[in-house]
Amino acid sequence: MQPQPWWKERVVYQIYPRSFQDSNGDGIGDIPGIISRLDKLQALGIGILWLSPVYRSPDADNGYDISDYRDIDPRYGAMADMERLFVEAKKRDIRIIMDLVINHTSDEHEWFQQSRDKNSPYRDYYIWRPGKPGGGPPNNWTGFFMGSVWTLDERSGEYYLHLFDQKQPDLNYHNLKVIEEAEGILRFWLDKGAAGFRCDVINVLYKTSLADGKRSVAVRGIEHYKSQEGNHAILRRLRQNVLDRYDCFTVGETVMVDVPEARLLCEPERRELDMVFYFEHLEVDRRVARYVPKKFKAKNLLRVLAKWQKGLSWNALYLENHDQPRIVSHYGDDGAYREMSAKLLATMEFTLRGTPFVYQGQELGMTNFDFTELSQLNDVESRNIDALMKRLHIPARLRWKWIAKASRDNARTSMQWSDAPEAGFTTGKPWLGLNGNYKSINYQAEEADEHSVLHYYRRMIALRAGSETLKYGAFSPLKTNRRVMVYERTWKDERYVVLLNFSARMTKAAYTGEVVVANTERTAYGGRLEPWEAVVLRQTKAEETKE
Ligand code: ISL
Ligand code: CA
């Protein structure tokens, strides 16, 4: 086999800086805090860090609204701290990728402030339009955080477009200057030592037309800007002019993509992105977007996983991030089987083909928050959804039930380091809140217990690192039903069979082989899976499988 790029060999760890480690008692995690925990990340075995935004920001969407791309927000530290982080990470053979948020800026960015003046050269950096002749916004589009995408700016009497919050105006990618600015931002961080980018909502940059959108419950108008040819051209240009000149990679967050669309965005011969985050595998138990639930079935999950495993030559594997509920509360059982199911989900993630991403706390089996009312939440999306559902006359109890399950704040509570006050995250008061279960679920306790979820993650990371079959072997689904999924990975003479029981019932699954890893103490497999058991069997060509 040809030597493979380093970003296929390594595991990525996502840090949401504001909730990871506070170093100065203001209740907000920061860069010195991250540096103080690097040894622990190295011990976990990860080789790449992805930092959610640490740039200067007024914080309307927790840093995804940037007011200066070349500066660190004082809440997180100074540029000198960031430079020290690059150096300290490098010492531990950890590379860092930055979050690239270039679909929109903050409304407090200098460009937007200038842009409010009709005669400014910056006017054309954003998308300004007069209202409809009879009054009202220029078209009928609705955004990702609900409501119209247009906000009227009193100063110039025109509307500006924002697919997200009104404090996140979209840049105008019909303007070459904007593309050049983006190139400058990429170069700036690559020159500082970044090893690549996670590219925020990167398939909606280019708005082909501003015509009215088709009827739709959510994001009306998306057919005019999702994965357009103009967007592909921009990605190719960024690649040619900048990215190809550095040893780096990109993973694009691509919204509402199917396999054919994703292939156009990340198949190697296209020379656009290196991988994409899609969402379909996290939505098999949802009806409308993320908020209306439906029953989980293992076979639906395997069908989606298989489609993407077969459809793309390389996957970005993830089960959690800062926008998703905790996976153990989502597809696992965060009660009696928390540890078992967290380990089962780890087994699944690390035995699929692609680059695995672990979100902070996932390696501890951290659960959804235990908040009891909306006022404890901070997330702009949760608040807007609640308001929308209220207008639809959905009763308060049901609204809260749905939001509590799906809110983005589930993943944003403080990292649980120890059983000390505030879980060792801060000596002050955390900006969001701390899960009451931190006394038992925390890094320190799990470090001391060799049967913990943390130790299991270490084991899975090491197992993948040492196995060509797990990294590069072909994937095929073998068998599935409501509760169980079985798939194989094959490479040369070796075959791994992965058996996962997503239920509290004992289940039969007749396969043979030597046990490579299991989330139980077993050393041999006899054809029956315990509740929430995960087993990986290894066979070589000589042996026969019986089904
Ligand atoms: O979070 C979502 C589902 O609830 C998505 O709709 C999300 O808004 C979308 O995936 C885009 O996410 C990214 O860009 C947003 C930011 O709020 C998210 O945190 C970020 O991951 C705007 O920059
Ligand atoms: Ca701090």
| DSSP summary, beta strand count | 20
CATH superfamily of the largest domain: Glycosidases
Figure out the total of helices: 16
**Strand order, largest beta sheet:** 11-10-9-5-2-1-13-12
CATH class placement of the largest domain: Alpha Beta
Give an account of the 3D structure.
With 547 residues, the protein is an alpha/beta fold. The protein has four domains: 1-101 and 317-366 and 438-466, Alpha-Beta Barrel (TIM Barrel); 110-161, Alpha-Beta Complex (Oligo-1,6-glucosidase, domain 2); 176-313, TIM Barrel (Alpha-Beta Barrel); 471-540, Golgi alpha-mannosidase II (Immunoglobulin-like). It has 16 helices and 20 strands. It has helices at 6-9, 31-36, 38-44, 79-91, 110-115, 176-192, 229-241, 259-266, 298-311, 327-330, 338-350, 380-391, 396-406, 443-448, 453-465, 468-472, and strands at 12-15, 48-51, 55-56, 68-72, 95-100, 128-129, 150-153, 158-161, 196-199, 249-253, 275-277, 316-318, 355-359, 474-480, 484-491, 494-501, 507-508, 514-518, 528-529, 534-540. The chain is globular and about 75 Å long. The two termini are 32 Å apart. It binds 6-O-alpha-D-glucopyranosyl-D-fructose and calcium ion. Calcium ion is lined by residues 22-24, 26, 28, 30.
Pick out its properties.
547 residues; binds calcium ion; 5-stranded antiparallel sheet; Oligo-1,6-glucosidase, domain 2; alpha/beta; TIM Barrel
